[in-house]
Design a protein that fits this description.
Largest sheet: 6 strands, mixed
CATH topology: Deoxyribonuclease I, Chain A
Strand order of the largest sheet: 6-7-5-4-3-14
Low-confidence stretches: 1-23, 29-47
CATH superfamily: Endonuclease/exonuclease/phosphatase
Shape: globular
Number of domains: 1
Distance between the termini: 5 Å
Strand content: 25-35%
Number of helices: 7
Radius of gyration: 18 Å
Structural class: alpha+beta
Number of strands: 14
Helix content: 10-25%
CATH class: Alpha Beta
Length: 271
C-alpha cells in the first residue's frame, strides 16, 4: 500500500473525518545492537531492536482515542501535528486510550495545549508524540515564543536502552490569517532543526506537517549539511519507490527526516 492514505470517515459513537489525512510512516527494523558501542561482548548478548516510527496530521485528536488505538496500533512512535488540544483535552484523550486498552501509554504534548483555558487557543495548532515506550519532553534552549507557539516541541523516547530523540513542527499555513507564514515557519524550523542536528547525537528525526514545499526555506539546508534525509527520498533512492504527495493528493508538505544513524536501520515503507 502507498505511503499516504486517503481521507476516510469512521462511524461509531462519534463520527468524524480525517480531513486530508496526512499520514506518512516508516518501518525501522533493528539491525543495531543495543549497547554494542559501550559494552562489547558476544553476539548473543546483544538484543535486536525493531520499531515503527510515523508522523500524521489527523486534523484534530479530540474524541479520537479509540480510532487511534485501533487503526494506528502498528506504530511504536507517532508524531502528530494539529491536535487541537487545549485545557483538559489531553487528559481526556489519555483516558480514552486507557478505556480502549491501547498500548500507547505515553502522550506528550506542546506545553500550551495542557494549560487550562476557558476558550480554545489551539483550534488549528498543537503537536504531540504518542508512544508505546517511555517518552518525555526533551529539555532545550528553544526560545520561549517557540515553546509557547503550539507548533513545535522536542521529545525523546527510550526504546530498550536506546534513546530516540526528535522534533515535531507544524508550520503556519498559507492563508490570509498568516501573512508571514514563510518567515514564521522558517523561524520554527531553524531552531528545532538546529537542536535536532547539532545539539544532540544518535538516533534522531525531525517530522511534521510543515506547510511548505521541500527545499523552499533555508532551514532545509541545515538538514542536508547534517546528513539528514527524508524517508521518501531514501525509499526512492534504494528501491525506486515513487515520491508521493502527502497533502490533498497535490503537494508534498509533510516530512520525516532521519539522522544518518537512523538511516542505517530504515528498511521499508508500508501501510
Amino acid at each position: 500500500m502507498p505511503l499516504w492514505r486517503e481521507s476516510q470517515r469512521v462511524k461509531g459513537g462519534n463520527s468524524w473525518c480525517l480531513r486530508s489525512s496526512r499520514l506518512l510512516m516508516i518501518l525501522c527494523f533493528g539491525s543495531f545492537r543495543i549497547g554494542e558501542a559501550s559494552n562489547p561482548g558476544p553476539v548473543d548478548q546483544f538484543e535486536a531492536c525493531q520499531f515503527t516510527l510515523g508522523t500524521c496530521n489527523p486534523s484534530g485528536l479530540r474524541n479520537k482515542a479509540q480510532y487511534f488505538s485501533s487503526q494506528l496500533s502498528y506504530g511504536d512512535i507517532w508524531t502528530v501535528t494539529e491536535t487541537h488540544f487545549f485545557g483538559h483535552d489531553v487528559s481526556k484523550f489519555r483516558a480514552g486510550l486507557r478505556a480502549s486498552k491501547s498500548e500507547f501509554a505515553y502522550v506528550v504534548t506542546d506545553q500550551p495545549s495542557i494549560k487550562p483555558c476557558l476558550t480554545s487557543q489551539n483550534a488549528w495548532k498543537g503537536v504531540a508524540v504518542l508512544s508505546k515506550h517511555p517518552t518525555r519532553i526533551l529539555p532545550s534552549g528553544l526560545p520561549e515564543c517557540i515553546l509557547n507557539s503550539g507548533r513545535a516541541m522536542l521529545a525523546t523516547t527510550l526504546l530498550s536502552d536506546v534513546w530516540i530523540s526528535g522534533g515535531v513542527i507544524y508550520g503556519e499555513p498559507d492563508g490570509h490569517k498568516y501573512p508571514n507564514h514563510m518567515r514564521n515557519t522558517e523561524y520554527l524550523l531553524h531552531h528545532v532543526i538546529s537542536h535536532g542536528c547539532h545539539l544532540s547525537a544518535g538516533l534522531r528525526y525531525v517530522a511534521g506537517d510543515w506547510n511548505v514545499l521541500q527545499d523552499s526555506l533555508p532551514a532545509f539546508e541545515i538538514l542536508q549539511q547534517a546528513g539528514f534525509r527524508e524517508v521518501q527520498d531514501i525509499a526512492f533512492e534504494r528501491w525506486a519507490t515513487p515520491i508521493q504527495t502527502t497533502c490533498k493528493s497535490s503537494t508534498r508538505k509533510d516530512f520525516l527526516y532521519l539522522s544518518p544513524e537512523m538511516q542505517d536501520f530504515f528498511c521499508w515503507v508500508w501501510m
